Amino acid sequence: MDMANDFQEIEKARDLLRDAIESLKEGFALYDDDRRLVMFNQRYADMNKGVADLLKPGLDWEILMRETARRGIYADAIGNEEQWVSDRLANGIEFIQDYELTETDGRTYLVSVHPTKLGGFVVTREDITDRKQAEAEERDGDLLIRQVLDASSAVVTMARIGDGRILYRTPAALQLFGAAKSAREHYANPDERADFVTMLLVDGQVDDYKLDLLNADGKLFPASISSQLIDYKGEEVIVTSIIDLTVQKEADALIRQVMEAYPAAINMTNAETGEIMFATPEIKALFGPVRSSKSYYADPTERERYLRDLRKAGSLKDRRMAFVDATGRTFWGADSSRLIEFNGEEVIVSNTRDLTDELAIEEELAKQRELLFQNEKMSALGELLAGVAHELNNPLSVVVGHSLMLKEEITNPDLTVRIEKISNAAERCAKIVKTFLAMARQQPSKIEQVDVASVIETAADVVGYGNTSGDVRVTQNIPAGLSPIAADADQITQVIINLIINAEQAMTSSGCGNLIELSASAQPDTGMIEVTVKDNGPGIPKAIRARIFEPFFTTKEVGEGTGIGLAFCHRIILSHGGQIRLDQGGEGGTCIRITLPVGGKRKTVEDEPVEPASTSANLRALVVDDEVEVGELNAEILRKQGFEVDLVTSGQEAITRLGAAQYDVFLSDLNMPGVDGRQIYDALVTDFPDMLTKTAYVTGDTMGQNSLALLKESGLPYLEKPVSPSELRVLVGKLLADQKEASDG
Description:
- Helix content is 43%, strand content 24%.
- It is built from 20 helices and 27 strands.
- The strands form six sheets. The protein has a five-stranded antiparallel beta sheet with strand order 2-1-5-4-3. Strands 7-6-10-9-8 form a five-stranded antiparallel beta sheet. It has a five-stranded antiparallel beta sheet with strand order 12-11-15-14-13.
- The model is unreliable at 465-469, 557-563 and 601-611 (pLDDT under 50).
- Helix 3 runs antiparallel to helix 4 and helix 14 packs antiparallel against helix 15.
C-alpha cells in the first residue's frame, strides 16, 4: 500500500515537472550521464525542426550531433560534417552560457548547456532571430543616421542630461564649438543651461530658444537652439540642433538700420493685439511713442473693419481712414498694408501717409478746375456778347453821336428835354455794350479808385432799399477808413445790385427771411477788400451750388429769369482781378463773398487830359468806314471842328486817297470787306510812313485775334464804337498834339 502511494507521488511529481518544463518560454531538454535524452518540451522540438523526428527519450547525443551535421541544419557544418561533429564531441559536456547558433534557414538561437550533479546536462534554447534582426536594423539605422549627419552642414549634438557629456556631434558642431567634452562648455552662464534643461524636462521638447553661446574661440554668438529628449540605450539624452544667428542678426540689424533711415512711415504691428513690434521714426513722429496701434484710429471700430478687410484680401492699398496724431489732431491718412506670418503670429506691415497736404492740394485743384470751367463758360459767353455788341456798335454810334450833337446844337427847352432823354437812353445802351465788351475781354472798361462804401450805398439806393421799409430790410456795415479799390464803379455797383435783387426775390418767393446784410472788410495780408452780401433766406440747395455762376442756369420760372445775372457778376469780378464765391455756412441763408484788389487806377485814352481838336482852318481828315452812317457821323463831327473831311467806304479807296493828297488826320475802321485794317497798316508802313503818327482806329471789333494783334503791333490809338462826339474830338486832339510835339522837338 505504501509503495503504491509512493509511486503515485512520483508520477504526480513527474507530471508537475513536465508541466513546468512545457510552460517554459525556452526550449528545454534533459540528458543523463550517458548523454541520452531523458525528456524535452515542445518548444525544444519546434526549435530543432530539422531533427524533430529523432527526438525521443533515449536518443544518444552523438547520434543527434551527427544527424544534425548530415542534414545541413547549421551553415558552418556544411561540407565539414566530420570535423564539426568531432569538435563538438571532443569538448565534452561543459558549461556553456548563451552560445549563439545560426541555422541555415536564417534563424538564430541562444543555446546554454548546464551540467547536472548526477553527470547529465540540461540544454536550453531561446529563439533570438527577431531580436538579432531588430539589433541589426538599429545598427544599420544608427550607421545611416551617423553618415547623414556627418555629411550634413547641420550643427547637431547629443549629450547626457546630467553632466552634459557629449555622446555625438556632427563635424559642423565640432567646427563651431571645438572638441569640448561637455555641452556645458557651450554656455557662457551655467544657469542658462540649467534653465533650458528644466524647460526641456517639462515639455520634452523646446523649439527656437534664443540665447548667446560660446564658440570654439570663446566668443559669444547669437544662436537659436531646438532640443528634444530621447532614450538612447536605456539612457535619456538631449539631441540639440543649433543655428548660428550671427549673419541673420547682422542682416536684421542692417534692415532695421535701413528701415529706420528710410523716410517713410512704416509700421509692424501684431494683428490681434495691435502691439507695435517695429516703427520707423516717421511713425513715431506722426503718432507719438505709443505701444499699441489701436490708439491711431479716430474711430475705434474702424480698426476692426480694417482688420476684417485685410484678412479677407491679404493686402490693402491706399485705404483712407481718419487717424489721430501725437498732438490729438484728427487727420485723413492713406494706409497700404499686407498681412504676414511672423514667429507664428499674424503681423501687419503697413505704410501710412498723412493726406492733409495732398487733400488740400486736391481741394485747391478742384477749385481751380471749377474756376477754369467757369472761365471757359464765361469765355463762351464773352464771345456771344462780343458778337452782339459788334452788331449793335454801328447803329448805336449813329444814335449816340447824333443825339449828342443835337443836344449841343438845339436851344429849344422842349426839344432839349426830349433830346436829353434820347441821349441818356443812347448813352445807357452804349455803356451796356461797352460793359459787354469789357467782360468779353476779361477787363473793365474804366479803372479808377472807388470808395467801397459809396458803391454799396449807391447799389442799395438804386434797388430802392435805402430806407428801412418794406418786407425786406437791408443793413450796411462798412468800417471807416477802408482803402479804395481799383475798379469800374458802375460795374461793381451793378454786381451788388444783382446780388441784392437775387436775395430779395429768393426771400419773397419762399416766404423765408427778411434781412440782407451788406458789409465790407480789409484783408491786409492779401491786399484785398472783401465785400459780403448775406441774407437769412432759404439758402441755395446743395445740389445746385456748383452751378449758380453758369451762364443761363436759373431756378426761376420761364420768363422770370435768364440765368445771366450771376454769370455777369462772376465775369465782372474776375475781370477786376478779384474772386466771387458762395460761402454756404451752417446757419442757413446765402452768403456771397467778393474780394477786389486795393490799388491806384490805370490810365486809358479817356483819362488823359487832352485838349479838343483845334478849329484852325486848312486841316484835312480822311475817314474810312464801310458803314456809311457811321462814317458820315464821324465826318460831320470833324467838319464841325473845322476839318475838311474826305469820306470813303472801302480800304482800297482810302489807300488811293492817301496817295493823292496830304491829310492831317486819318481815321480808319478795322473790319471791312476787301482791303481791311491790316492791309491799310501795311500800306502805311511801306508807302506812307509819315501818316503813322496821324492815324487812329475807330472800330467795333477789339475782340478778334487779328484785330487785337494789329492794335498791339501798331501801337496806334483807337476808340471803341459806339463813339461819342466828345471822345472823337479828344482822340483827334491827341493826334494833333502829338504831331505838334514831334515837330517842335
